[in-house]
Amino acid sequence: MVPEAREVHLSRKDRKVLEACCRSPVTLQRDLKRARIVLLAADGRSTRSIAKEVGVQPRIVSLWRHRYADHGLEGLQDKPRPGKQPIYTKATDKRILKLLDKPPPQGFARWTGPLLAEALGDVDVQYVWRFLRSHKIDLAARKSWCESNDPNFTAKAADVVGLYVAPPSKAIVLCVDEKPSIQALERAQGYLKLPNGRALTGQSHDYKRHGTTTLFAALEVATGKIIATHSKRRRRVEFLDFMNSVTAAFPGRKLHVILDNLNTHKKNEPWLKAHPNVQFHFTPTSASWLNQVEVWFSILQGQSLSGTSFTSLRQLQEHIDAYVNAYNDKAEPFVWTKKKVRQRRFKGRRITQL
Description:
With 354 residues, the chain is an alpha/beta fold. The chain is 40% helix and 16% strand. The strands form two sheets. Strands 5-4-1-6-7 form a five-stranded mixed sheet. A hairpin with a 5-residue loop joins β2 and β3 (199-203). The longest helix is centred in the last third of the chain and has 17 residues, at 313-329. It is elongated and about 115 Å long. The relative contact order is 0.09. InterPro entries: Homeodomain-like_sf, MscS-like_channel, RNaseH-like_sf, Tc1-like_DDE_dom, Transpos_IS630-like. It comes from Bradyrhizobium campsiandrae. This is IS630 family transposase. Residues 173-317 form the Tc1-like transposase DDE domain.
C-alpha cells in the first residue's frame, strides 16, 4: 500500500540545484532519479505517474517525497549504514604490540608474522602483516647502536673535533690506528657469462689462506696523506716502533696524534717523555668513529682489498703499499661538515633490553 502523498514545495534555490543536477552529465543515476522525483512532485504530479515516468516503484517515490518534505536537500542523501562489525579492533592491535615487547618463543631469534598469529591464537596472519605494515614495524630489519658511557665524552669529543676544524698553528695533526689481521686469500677469479648474455665478475667460493698482516696507518689531517707500515702483530712494541717512524717523518714538528682507547695506545708515558713534541689525544670510549683514519680504512677495504686474490703474504703487502702510493698522489683532506651535533632518537620505537 502506497502511503498518502506529501506535498512538496520547492524554494527557488533548491529548484536550481535539482535542475542543475538533472542537466549534469556526471550525476549518478540514483541522484538523478531522486532529483526528478522531487521536481515532478513539486509540479503537482501524483505518486503513481511519477513512478511510471521515472521507472521506479511507487513506494520509492513516496520515500523521497517524504524525505525531502522533512529534511530538504539533505534528506536526498543516503543515511549512514552500520555495516558489518569489524573482526579485529584496537584491542587486537594492543595485544600485538604487547606481544612484541615480550621475547620470542624459545629457540627463535625474533618474532615473525606466523609466530605472532600462532601466539595470539585468534588473529589471522594476514591481519598481523597488515597491522605491522601500517605501523611501519619491520620484524626482519636490524639496527645496531653504540652508546658511549664515557663521563668525559663532551670534553674528549670537543678536543678531537677542535683539532679537525681549528688545528694548532705550526703543528701536525695525525690520526693513527691499526687494521689487524688482513688476510691474504687466494681465490679463483674471472668473468661469468649468464644465459641471458650478461657478463659479471666473480670469484670462487673456495679459498686458500697465505697468512695475515697488521697495517699501521697514520693519516695527516691537513693533507689527507697516509703513512703506513706492516707488522705481524699489534702489540705495544709494534705500535711504538710505528710511532718512531712517524716522528722521523716530521722532524722537529709538534705532533698531535688522535688515537682510540686500545690498551696498547695508553700508558706510554716513558715514550712520550722521550718525545716531548708528541701529544696523544684519545677519542671517547666507544667512539672510535671520530678518528678519521677509520674512514680511510673503509676506503682501503672498498677500493683495494674487496674482491682481490693473493698468492702470498708479500703480494698482499705490496698490493697495499701500491694503493697507498697511488692514494697519496691524489690525496685530499676530509672535510668536516657537521655544524651541530644532536642526539639521534629512535622515533616511534621502543627499545627494550631483554
